[in-house]
Specification:
This protein has 386 residues and is α/β, with parallel strands linked by helices. Helix content is 43%, strand content 13%. It contains 17 helices and 12 strands. The strands form 5 sheets. Strands 7-10-12-11 form a 4-stranded mixed sheet.
Length: 386
Amino acid sequence: STQSTWGFKANLHKNRPMGGRGGVTINVRRGHIFEDSYANISRWARDELMSKLTVRFHGEEGIDAGGVAREWFLLLSREIFNPNYALFISTQKNNSTFQPNPLSGVVNADVHVQYFKFVGRVIGKAIYEGQMLDAYFTRSFYKHILGIPLSIEDMEDIDPLHYKSLKWVLDTDLESDEAKAVEFTFSHEIDRLGQIVVVDLKPDGRNIPVTNENKAEYVQLATEMVMTTNIKQQLNAFLEGFYEVIPSEQIAIFNEAELELLICGAIEFDIDDLERNTEYHGYSASDDQIVWFWQALRSFCHEDRARVLQFATGTSKVPLDGFSHLQGMNGVRRFQIHKAYGDTDRLPQAHTCFNQLDLPQYTSYEMLVDRLLLAVHEGCEGFGFG
């Protein structure tokens, strides 16, 4: 909430160093923004990380009254995802949300860990300075920063097909004839630069069959492998740099959706464009619930609008070419509103792989607004391991 953001920022700046030389200055060349920034920031002590920052672009006049630093943060946040550094990879759901690349050490074996620490410092410093970045990460990555336990649902925006197969294992009787045709063991196949490598999820896992009795453990280990174990070194380095600027106990007041908005800001988007590019299933555009939905979205503040987008699509990032180019599991997939049958009092649900919102048949505008806001503010938690 806005109130918790204000409190967070006030606490954060309590220990800002006073006096001294009036902050730190970095000089960077536009064509080498990543390397030059890394050379500066990786040397800083914690006091310097907390000091006022001034940025100068090599060969350019101009006093940094805030605008130059803002541009530097934005340009650097994009460069972090430059495939040449191989630090982050885009998810299989779309190419605009990222998570650490488990193979980052192959490209930059000697410096990739230091690079992750540097990226953690940059993102922490941006939050500290109230600067917005063009840096959208996976839900599981935000949860790692916040110390929130991961769930199988967090796999959905990283690898929808793998998520689907794990859900199938959980939901299927593995003794049935259908299931016996498919063999699962406690192992996971990883593509290492074109080579398929089998990794055990537990000792000798490739020889341990998955059964009804142990399938919950298998699903937990398989999701941990993708979202945590494979990227442990990268994660730890990033968090070390991030927590130097933003202590873990202070950032922990947010959930993963709020953290994305804190890092990226709530981008204003064109609701008319979204409405033009929406498909209805079970509803038509003239049904009360659909008319109320668009009326509600237009009445919300831009932060709550961004939350609705985030809730339904998995990210608050707006496609560059408009909502006709919204990415889904297999390329372009428009925003969809499906009629949710049954109890008319329950919360809307989302399937982010398909950019799909399941909207119950609410009986009044007020009820729709109430349930929609409740879902997008509180409904971030998915399926846990019981």
